[in-house]
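Please, structure for the following, as tokens.
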Amino acid sequence: ALEDFIAERSSVTAGYDPERPPVAVLPWGDAAVIGDAGFAVFRRLVERADFKFDDEFWGLVPLVYGRQRIRAAYEIFSGLPVSVWESQPEYHQYRKAFLDAYSDMCSKAGRGECRAWLSSLLKGFTEEELLRYAQGVLREEPLREIAEIKDLVGLLLRSGFDVWVIDSDNQKILEAAAKRYGVDPSRVVGLRLAPAKGGKLAPGIVGPILIRSGKVEAAVSAFGRPPQFVIAAAPGDAELLRYGAGLRLVLDGGDATLRRSAEENGWLVQHSFAAGSMGLP
């Protein structure tokens, strides 16, 4: 079905318009790859205490997750040589509290809010610094590629499709990750932070939170017309699946609501290549 669909709309067909090529959209973490680039970068920032710590940063940590305790622990171990951090109970307290906060926020508040929180913690970086940091993390801890999805992206690109990645990771982290599949950074839509003085990023999110209707809003803003092909892997992708007509493919990771929607709407269903691999929400 995919091969026929792509062949009927490829750049060698009579009706192909290079000014308005068919648009394909896919998500990223635990859909196009096995793993989560946003979480990988967050974990590295926590473990190496590489955040841009200041009063504004600490104000982003909810009191309910022990802000004062985490900050006090950080202030004890951060003045010591990095080589001895692992032997310091305060370092382990700080690290565990941060990772637990993310896990708890995702399970209680939902993916949209917890991913926005991760992005907000990147305040103080410039976009260039953040891109380099993400590239470094992904070089050392590359996400496992899913050959079938990488091959499909390559086929779409060779066939003249305008391929976009829209997901709820930070923009620069998502750019660093999607580049491995040949997706141009200009075709990546992630969460953006507000620019601040001196090129540093402020904690406020600019634009929609990229889940549910926020993905549709981002699509309208990015390319201005319904995509002809959408790959989805989570319930938060349902609105994008319904935006326009064309081929819709659900990577079924076990969510009954999404599977039922696929059956009701006649969307293609493929068992997720990343099913069972996901860690934190």
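The mean pLDDT is 95. The longest helix spans residues 89-109.
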